Amino acid sequence: MKKYNIAILGASGAVGQEMIKILEEYQIPVGTLLPLASARSAGSVIRFNGQDIEIKEATEDSFEGMDFVLGAVKNAMSKKFAPAIVRAGAVYIDNSSAFRMDPEVPLVVPEINGEDAFANKGIIANPNCSTIITLMAVAAISKISPIKAMVACTYQAVSGAGQDGLYELENQMKALAEGKAVERKVFPHQIANNVIPFIGSMTDNDYTDEEMKMQNEGRRIMHLPELKVNCTCVRVPVMRSHSIAVTVYTENPVSVDDANKAIAAFEGCRLIDDYEGRCYPTPLDTSDQDLVWVGRVRKDLIADNGLVLWCCGDQIRKGAASNAVQILKKLIER
User: Which pLDDT band, with edges at 50, 70 and 90, does 221 fall under?
Assistant: First the structure.
């Protein structure tokens, strides 16, 4: 069996560490694993396939001999190293938003538009976490009738802000339990016992850039250039797994029964119609696994062509690390 040399750019972060875990879990045939990070994190050790591997500092010369590079870094670092990765002949699967709207770069969710990955010119973009989870939940419906519009409200876990977001919620919960003052650095307000209906930066239309990703990225992934999406993104005091309430408007009416059957049959989804006596998933149900759970599918009470549903998925895994590894897996299987 052919083995592949794979680098992880951002190996010290939450998503990078999850990528390493999933490579092992998926039994990807790895020849050399090269964990890379900034100078600050270089020298620390990760565990892979029973071996300790030292994290190296990322430089423009780091990628020679690599077949694939999985990126788990912010935009600036991604843009800095992408040209060197492509020059080295590796395929860069990038989890940042740096290249998502570049028409030359495929934006891929393997179960939805996996074939787009093969049109890459050295870079493939991983979509936004909430976009992935939402589109996984509605993709089966779009096979029955094209989707014209969606109204979504996301309930996003603190893991979406990285390892520091997890630490902040943990520390605030501990402080509250001990009657101490709450400190905040990552989020604009206390997140423990609270919700914050604003994620990202404000744009000209009074939506945030995080909210606009659902429409802009959704159009590319679903091949629906006229798709319209209203989205409100809310940070909630949940460790990991995002939840989304979404109303889907289709060109033709779709029955609840037909939608349920399609969702149940769609790869990567799990329909919840009776799970432990309930008809809905929760973030705890979906943490540390790769399926997007979908429930509470019902008719919209406003429009004849509308369906309402609730979905949950692990932000660190399917929303980021697993989706990237699944793209890699699809490429090597071809």
Answer: very high
Instruction: Please check whether residue 273 is in contact with residue 260, taking contact to mean a CB–CB distance below 8 angstroms.
Output: yes
Summarize pLDDT for 225-248 with one digit per residue, the tens: 999 999 999 999 999 999 999 999
What CA–CA distance (Å, rounded) separates 247 from 291?
A: 20
**Residue 190: pLDDT band by 50, 70, 90 thresholds?**
very high
**Cα–Cα dist 241/285, whole Å:** 9
> Which tokens in the block code for residue 205?
């239309």
Quick one: pLDDT band at residue 174, thresholds 50, 70, 90? very high
Question: Residue 303: phi, psi to the nearest 5?
Answer: -120, 140
Fold category of 131-315 in CATH: Dihydrodipicolinate Reductase; domain 2 (3.30.360)
Which residue has tokens 């694993």? 33
Q: pLDDT per residue over 80-109, tens digit each?
A: 999 999 999 999 999 999 999 999 999 999
Residues annotated as catalytic are 129, 242
Q: Quick one: angle between helices 322-333 and 14-25, nearest 10?
A: 40
Residues of CATH 3.40.50.720 domain(s) within the chain?
A: 4-127+320-333
- Domain 4-127+320-333 - what CATH class? alpha beta
